[in-house]
Amino acid sequence: MKNIVSLILFLIILTSCRQHKNALSKLDYASEEIFPIQIDKYGIPNVKIEFRKNPIWIQWDTGDMVGLVLSKSIIPGYNLTIKDSIQLRDSAGKSVGFSYRYLADSINIFGKIYSNLLVSESQGDYMGLIGPRFIDLNRFTLDYKNRLIAISNTSLAQEKIKGEKLLLVPSERLPRLIVVEGYINGNRVLVELDTGKSRTVIDSDAAREWNLKEGEKGTIIDNLSLGGIDLQIDNAKLKSFKGISKSFPDPIIVGIGSDILSDFIFTVDYEQGIAVLSPRE
Questions:
Q1: For 110-186, where are the E strands, in sequence order?
Q2: Dihedral (CA of 53, 56, 61, 67) sign
Q3: By residue range, what is the domain housing residue 211?
Q4: Which residue in 3, 19, 140, 188 is a FRET match for 250, CA 20 to 30 A apart?
Q5: Do 57 and 44 touch, CB atoms closer than 8 A?
Q6: pLDDT digits over 20-47, tens only?
Q7: Is there a single domain that holds both residue 145 and residue 163?
Q8: Per the confidence metrics, is the pTM higher than 0.85?
């Protein structure tokens, strides 16, 4: 009896996974372009890479400006050669130390082998991270609820775009950072969409200038509008974006994190210069 119940549960899960993959297939992703993700304790999506055939789950961080990063705790096990070191800076532009960079012989990311890839080290309590800036892709779709990510080198057909379409604000220095226009309480702002943030953040100077209230969980944003989407946020964290804002025509004021993005199916098409927030299925 237990075996029959287990088989039924397996078939239900298998059918559900196929249905969710079919939903991404409607966005013209082939089955081999769809991959499972995990959600870590911070609510951040993690993707699987293979380093010398060893699987490692690392964060999918759309705000990544360094490249492939692996935990300092696991790098010694691969006997990598130090290539150089780089200065690390936060979003405010302040120095937060340095990182050695190593030359990795072969890493499998989304089914593609990358050779002679530079790997930086992290001292954080996560296994690593990678972002779309350093991956061979034109677009991706992230489905938090159904634990899937899809990537493709093709562009999304206009008739397949369902949801709120937001134009990307371009930057030559940070070409794949996902920044769009929005409004806070009627004030026009630039907004970063950052899967690597567990919590939405707002520029501390802007919060003071607009007299935003502090609640029990954090700074309260009564109304953040992205196109036709209106958001209310009661737990925003104060931060500075002065460092990365230098790369854009106006300052970045808000960074929307996975706490909000997880409520949507999140697509970015770099060729068309758009981000799309669609209702979850």
A1: 112-122, 128-130, 139-143, 148-152, 164-167, 179-184
A2: negative
A3: 158-279
A4: 140
A5: no
A6: 566 787 888 999 999 999 999 999 999 9
A7: no
A8: yes
